Amino acid sequence: MAPDKGIGLTLNIPLRNRVAQADQVRAELEYRQAQVRLQQLENQVRIEVRNAQFDTRQNRASVDAAQAAVDFQRQTLDADQKKLAVGVGTSTAVLQDQSALTTAASNLVSAMAAYEKSEVEMDRATGLLLDHAGIIMADAERGQVTQMPNVPYVAARENPQSVMPPAQQPQ
Q1: Domain ranges for the chain
Q2: Which of 38, 39, 122, 142 is the most buried (most CB within 10 A)?
Q3: Closest among 16, 14, 15, 12 to 24, alpha carbons compared
Q4: Nearest CA to 46 among 38, 167, 89?
Q5: Dihedral, CA atoms, 130, 134, 137, 139, nearest 10 degrees?
């Protein structure tokens, strides 16, 4: 009989889970990309809000200037009408003043429209558009209006009904 002898060998080789490592690296990369996209969106929103603020201020100044031009043209027209009444002025000057007043009034309307648009853009950029208009998202989702929106220069209808057509009944 042969003697019982034996040698034992234990070999520990760490097997790396390369799939898990690759998934982790990919996830970290996607996370960093998402952070960069978020930062870009935040920067874009800041720029939009600043631009909207600038446009609103500039358009408000345009309204003020256009209003001053209308006031000036009214005064000029009044003065020339008084001159015409006492025989010192001419009807041509009065007609020119009326034309200038009409142009100034038209410019005022355009400036006011631009200002209102910039106000709406400011509300959109800041995310307050629906709140300022009194629009309730739950109503919009249901397609039924429980409270009339507060939209400037828009009159409410006499009998407000849902804008959405009635639901089709299955047959």
Answers
A1: 24-116
A2: 122
A3: 16
A4: 38
A5: -150
DSSP assignments along the chain, one per residue: -------------PPP-HHHHHHHHHHHHHHHHHHHHHHHHHHHHHHHHHHHHHHHHHHHHHHHHHHHHHHHHHHHHHHHHHHHHTTSS-HHHHHHHHHHHHHHHHHHHHHHHHHHHHHHHHHHHHT-HHHHHT--HHHHHHT--SS----TT-PPPSS---SSPPPPPP-
Structure tokens at 75: 């005064």
Residue 43 in tokens: 């920067």
Q: In whole angstroms, what is the distance from residue 56 CA to residue 62 CA?
A: 10
Give backbone dihedrals phi and psi of 5, rounded to 5 degrees, phi first.
-130, 150
The pLDDT value recorded for residue 145 is: 77
pLDDT one-digit tens code per residue, 78-120? 999 999 999 999 999 999 999 999 999 999 999 999 999 999 9
Give the pLDDT confidence of 123-165 residue by residue, as tens digits. 999 998 888 888 888 887 888 877 777 777 666 666 655 554 5
